[in-house]
Sequence to fold (440 residues):
Amino acid sequence: MVPDSITSVTSHMDGDWEDQTMPDGASGLNRRDFLHRAAGAALGASTLTGDAARAEQAAKVPPEKLVWRNKHPDMVYRRLGRTNFMCSRLAAGWRGNNRLKQMLLERGVNYFDTSRVYAGGNNEKEVGELARKFRDRIFLSSKASGLAGYPGRAFEPGEGAKAARMYHKLLDTSLRVLKVDHLDCYYLHGVDKPFVLETEELHAAYEKAHKAGKVKHNGWTTHRNAQEVLAKALELEEQGRHPFDLIMVACNPNSWPGIKDLIVKLQQHDIGLICMKATGQVRHGSGPHVGEMLELADTLQLNDRERSYAYMLHIAKFDVLISEMQNVKHVEGNLKLPGMRLAAADRRRLEAMVLAEQRGTCHHCGRCAAACPEVIEVDDVLRYHSYYHNYGHHQDACEHFRALGYDLVRACSECGRCKEACPAGIDLPAVIVEAARQMA
Ligand code: SF4
Ligand code: SF4
Fold:
């Protein structure tokens, strides 16, 4: 087992241009202590905003309790909730080869994320090669995929024992493929139903794996029905029944207002919040309000992706952002974002620009799939369509799409109910037709 490296802390870089967030910190409670204390009055910060709560929490934490890895003077770090890990505000997602990831490592990024199902099932193997080499410099997470909601859910209410067996099997497989002896976090992948978070057998499965030294922290991710599952998490947290330290949420500037209050409250409960899929799921520059966007002068010298990322880091205030990095240009562009300092006027300008260009992106609400009489996972189709068109990942997009197993030409009756249900007004039947033509 690689121990956490703990050093004394004399300088921190996390701060926002207006509120100058204090160094993040924590009380250093263990899991049981924390759960006992979690009932409602988490760290006494229930009336404060997310950043103020973070600052208040920081003031209560002895510096020696914080866990530092791969510290670099040009990177900004924030305490990742009650894990006490000082995380680079930019994390390495699954995209990008190991050469790019090593560049990130050399510039102070210290969080690497993967899953069994990424890159056609090969991403854990690839990330494992780098992770083993630099294991003591990174926080490494993977996901129990195909169990809790993505891709698909393997159990229903009352089938917790089955879910627990599968959790252990998936975790052991991840460790074997990654060739590491432990993970810093193992997420339940793609939780879209509240009951999953209440499944006590899964809580016990995590505790068992944690005691065996296989995983340090418990987490879950969501990219569908986020409002409902986040609300359930908060309810459970207030009852001391939410044994998860980290939540990874698909969120973009357009969907942020719908979950903002929940995210802030969960931060007040000292949960680490990680943002993924921050650029939305419409083609850049093709949204209905592109004209409005173009009227705003770009004084910030950021491209459209970087503007979305800057928004999620500095306005939405997630603790950590998983960003898209396909080449050196992306890496360099993204690395400048955590340390940005903006005047209030620039901040307002950024907000106006991002909201204009991102209007009409997916809210990750799942209403389209729920409305489909043919039980098509319409939002999944949209996601892979965006991989194809927004990110240019043609091969991955097609592989993911084919794995859904649909013959959309036959399955979709073009009834239009998905479009009617969509609060973002996305022309989903058109997406379905295009996906069937390009990605099948
Ligand atoms: S248009 Fe197609 S995908 Fe949309 S609800 Fe109807 S059958 Fe489902
Ligand atoms: S209904 Fe619209 S906003 Fe909601 S998940 Fe589907 S595409 Fe996204």
In short: The radius of gyration is 21 Å. Residues 160-178 form the longest helix (19 residues). Residues 31-352 form a domain with the TIM Barrel fold (CATH 3.20.20.100). Residues 1-47, 283-288 have pLDDT under 50 and may be disordered.
